[in-house]
Amino acid sequence: MSTSPQASEHTETVTESSSTNKRILLAKPRGYCAGVDRAVDTVERVLDKYGPPVYVRKEIVHNQHVVHNLRERGVVFVEDTEEVPEGSLLVFSAHGVSPAVREAAERRNLRTIDATCPLVTKVHKEVNRFARKDYDILLIGHEGHEEVEGTSGESPERVQLVDKPEDVDQVEVRDPSKVVWLSQTTLSVDETMERVEQLQERFPDMQAPPSDDICYATSNRQVAVKAMAAECDLVLVVGSQNSSNSKRLVEVALQSGASSAHLIDYASDVDDSWLEGVETVGVTSGASVPDVLVFQVLDYLQERGWGDVEEVTTANEKVSFALPRELRKDLDENPNNPQGVR
Ligand code: SF4
């Protein structure tokens, strides 16, 4: 698979001078992607316009700080549509949902707004297209991840999940000439290609996705961390434990030469023993992380003597997505008293 990160290949640096060797490399791009920005904006607008309580199925994005703040403002996060009172307003998270979840919401007469990232929806459509052509679909992804559950749910009888290397041997297809691989959007690009090569040994005629399933934001953040990792004694990735793309950044940093790497939600999670003997600290963040949390980490490091901050830029992202259609429509038609979706 050729990935298509929005990369300008040069690396640019912004430096503040300091007399010590302690420096910080700050990855760019990092943090919020267009899909997360849209999903959080959706919930905030729904809160502003309709008032609490607003129900959201699963965490709107995988970040503790974001979820905590929204909960404080009146969002009720639920695991299942059954927990939502009949007739209430329910937002589907950025990770997407299966048709079965949509049907369950309809049965409860819930009014729904779909904040699924358009790049996840694209993979759902690919599943449907290949299922209609009666292909066996090998979905590379992490078992139990919400996105994978939603994507598989588009055609459970045709999709087989391939997570670990040993899963490749378990795959069974009906016709080896009608097989396609697709993937979760937030995987490690390199590990995914390893899994594809394994699958190709078993199914040489296997088709590739029509376009990259690993999204631009995931690819770009991995390229940026790779560009700086070899220079880093320590890489701090700001992100939550259930954030797939954030966890991949830790792995990519280590595979690309960082001496150590840790995933942290907050600056206060830094263990001072990690900093012993360290000169260069790399800092980046997952696609669901607001930059304020990154700046708190920079402050924490600067209080401990890391003065220089060099921004390592490998791409300038300009992607943005419009709000969900059903929300836009109501805001357009009822700007002063939106009510259509309720
Ligand atoms: S990480 Fe990629 S797929 Fe996920 S919300 Fe962001 S842009 Fe969309």
From TrEMBL:
Query: What's an example of a GO molecular-function annotation for this chain?
Result: metal ion binding
Pathways involved = Isoprenoid biosynthesis; isopentenyl diphosphate biosynthesis via DXP pathway; isopentenyl diphosphate from 1-deoxy-D-xylulose 5-phosphate: step 6/6; Isoprenoid biosynthesis; dimethylallyl diphosphate biosynthesis; dimethylallyl diphosphate from (2E)-4-hydroxy-3-methylbutenyl diphosphate: step 1/1
Cofactor(s) for this UniProt protein: [4Fe-4S] cluster
Q: Which domain of life is it from?
A: Bacteria
The EC code for this enzyme is: 1.17.7.4
One of the GO biological process terms: isopentenyl diphosphate biosynthetic process, methylerythritol 4-phosphate pathway
* Keywords, sorted A to Z: 4Fe-4S, Iron, Iron-sulfur, Isoprene biosynthesis, Metal-binding, Oxidoreductase
Chain residues that bind (2E)-4-hydroxy-3-methylbut-2-enyl diphosphate: H62, H95, H145, T185, S243, S244, N245, S288
Q: Its family?
A: Belongs to the IspH family.
Functional note:
Catalyzes the conversion of 1-hydroxy-2-methyl-2-(E)-butenyl 4-diphosphate (HMBPP) into a mixture of isopentenyl diphosphate (IPP) and dimethylallyl diphosphate (DMAPP). Acts in the terminal step of the DOXP/MEP pathway for isoprenoid precursor biosynthesis.
Protein name per UniProt: 4-hydroxy-3-methylbut-2-enyl diphosphate reductase
